[in-house]
């Protein structure tokens, strides 16, 4: 399986990192080795002093597809989840400065936290889902899918022009504002509406 991530999909997050608003979705990939095993803590890697959390709504692909029109995109997923796109921000900034690919800063082992999934039928609208991240009992990120520049079905249309989507692939749909650094002994919890979809210890 593969993990496809969308960058810069929330205006307030683009602004907090002083990025340009893109004309089309920014896409990068994480390999399956990036997945943090369930119930494992996240160990801050030696190569970074600035690991950022980015909480994101996830979409799990349920069948093979290519060149998927957005009108039919909803047939390609049944479940919505929540995860963290961990980012070595210090390393990413250096790579961005040089115009180099981001993978070392975005796709390292453990950088993809994948929480539980919920049937999409549980939501009255996928374009109005509240989600957030709590660290040590403080809300650090709060978002709603209505703030996405590219909605889920538009993302599927776009990415499937380049990458064949396969059963089990997961799309990270971008993070809202409020990203920041994790530190040892943080307790991190992710919520969709009132449901907790993951708990994570930082070591
Ligand atoms: Mg992200």
Describe it for me?
The chain is an alpha+beta fold and 203 residues long. The protein has one domain (3-201): Fumarylacetoacetase-like, C-terminal domain (Fumarylacetoacetate hydrolase, domain 2). Helix content is 14%, strand content 34%. The protein is built from 4 helices and 13 strands. It has a 6-stranded mixed beta sheet with strand order 2-1-10-4-5-7, with helices on one face. It is globular and about 45 Å long. The chain binds magnesium ion. Magnesium ion is lined by residues 5, 7, 54, 56, 85, 172, 174-175. The site of magnesium ion (MG) has 8 residues, from strand 1.
What is the top-level CATH class? Alpha Beta
Task: Report the major sheet.
Answer: 6 strands, mixed
Q: Which whole number gives the mean pLDDT?
A: 97
Percent strand: 25-35%
Task: State the end-to-end distance.
Answer: 27 Å
User: What level of helicity do the residues show?
Assistant: 10-25%
What structural keywords apply?
203 residues; alpha+beta; globular; 4-stranded antiparallel sheet; binds magnesium ion; Fumarylacetoacetate hydrolase, domain 2; 6-stranded mixed sheet
Q: How would you summarize the topology of this molecule?
A:
Elements: E1 3-7, H1 11-16, E2 26-30, E3 51-53, E4 55-61, E5 77-85, E6 87-88, H2 89-98, H3 103-106, E7 112-119, E8 130-135, E9 138-144, H4 152-159, E10 170-172, E11 180-181, E12 187-192, E13 195-201
Parallel strand pairs: 1-10
Antiparallel strand pairs: 1-2, 3-6, 3-11, 4-5, 4-10, 5-7, 8-9, 8-12, 12-13
The structure holds magnesium ion.
Magnesium ion binds at residues 5, 7, 54, 56, 85, 172, 174-175.
């Amino acid at each position: 399986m593969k993990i496809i991530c969308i960058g810069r999909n929330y205006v307030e997050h683009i602004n907090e990192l002083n990025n340009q608003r893109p004309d089309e979705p920014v896409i990068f990939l994480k390999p399956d080795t990036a997945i943090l095993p369930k119930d494992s803590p996240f160990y801050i890697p030696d190569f970074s002093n600035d690991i950022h959390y980015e909480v994101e709504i996830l979409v799990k692909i349920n069948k093979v597809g290519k060149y998927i029109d957005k009108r039919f995109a909803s047939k390609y997923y049944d479940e919505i989840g929540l995860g963290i796109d961990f980012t070595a921000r210090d390393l990413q900034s250096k790579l961005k400065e040089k115009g180099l690919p981001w993978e070392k800063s975005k796709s390292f082992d453990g950088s993809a936290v994948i929480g539980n999934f919920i049937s999409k039928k549980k939501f009255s609208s996928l374009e109005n889902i509240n989600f957030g991240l709590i660290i040590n009992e403080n809300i650090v990120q709060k978002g709603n899918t209505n703030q996405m520049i590219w909605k889920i079905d538009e993302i599927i249309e776009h990415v499937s022009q380049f990458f064949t989507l396969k059963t089990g692939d997961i799309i990270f749909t971008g993070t809202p504002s409020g990203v920041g650094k994790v530190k040892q002994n943080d307790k991190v919890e992710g919520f969709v509406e009132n449901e907790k979809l993951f708990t994570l210890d930082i070591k």
